[in-house]
Design goal:
The protein is α+β, with helices and mostly antiparallel strands. It is 37% helix and 11% strand. The chain is built from 7 helices and 4 strands, in the order βαααβββαααα. The protein is extended.
Length: 191
């Protein structure tokens, strides 16, 4: 999938596809890819120029304080760290038997292309959520691994062996621990 270099803001894939020409393979691919996954439909993406994405992560906020009249204002700055994310490639080949295309027409090829896009979307979604770069270096770390190493707000629903059903109270605690929450990512069983 080629991404326009002018596409600088992070937007969901479905929103991005609206800017592509109607009827193109690229637009059809992106729309199918994103529509097969609730996560991919909502998750904002940004392009990685030259195969890398650089970003700053806040390490420490600046200090702030009230002041009295005729006193100097507080002066401080926060600290950030620069991180770089590499590109992880996912491309696939589709071979469709020519005899099948001769018998059923181009719809046979289109069916196989659609099935491949669906499979890619599901694989990408699974990796986005639970990818582990230490066990599979060709894939990125997923959200589960990233949050486990970044968050200091992790808590367990239950101290009992094997855990327990999630209570609405604990769900409220989890939501309130997040700055501006907008999505809950849960399994179908949990839902």
């Amino acid at each position: 999938m080629a991404v326009d270099s002018n596409f600088a803001l992070a937007v969901p894939l479905l929103e991005y596809s609206k800017g592509l020409e109607e009827g193109t393979l690229e637009r059809a691919f992106i729309e199918t890819f994103a529509s097969e996954s609730d996560v991919m439909g909502a998750f904002p993406v940004k392009p990685a120029t030259r195969g890398k994405y650089k970003f700053e992560r806040t390490a420490q906020l600046p200090s702030v304080a009230f002041r009295g009249y005729n006193e100097p204002g507080n002066e401080s700055t926060g600290t950030t760290t620069i991180h770089e994310e590499g590109v992880f490639l996912m491309d696939e080949y589709i071979r469709v038997d020519r005899a099948l295309v001769d018998e059923l027409g181009e719809k046979a090829r289109m069916k196989q292309e659609r099935l491949k896009i669906i499979a890619m979307s599901r694989q990408f979604t699974d990796t986005l959520l639970q990818g582990d770069n230490t066990t599979e270096p060709r894939e990125p770390d997923g959200l589960q691994n990233r949050f486990a190493t970044l968050s200091t707000n992790l808590f367990h629903n239950s101290a009992a062996s094997g855990g327990a059903a999630l209570s609405l109270g604990q769900l409220d605690v989890a939501i309130n621990a997040v700055n501006r929450p907008n999505y809950l990512i849960i399994s179908r069983n949990m839902k």
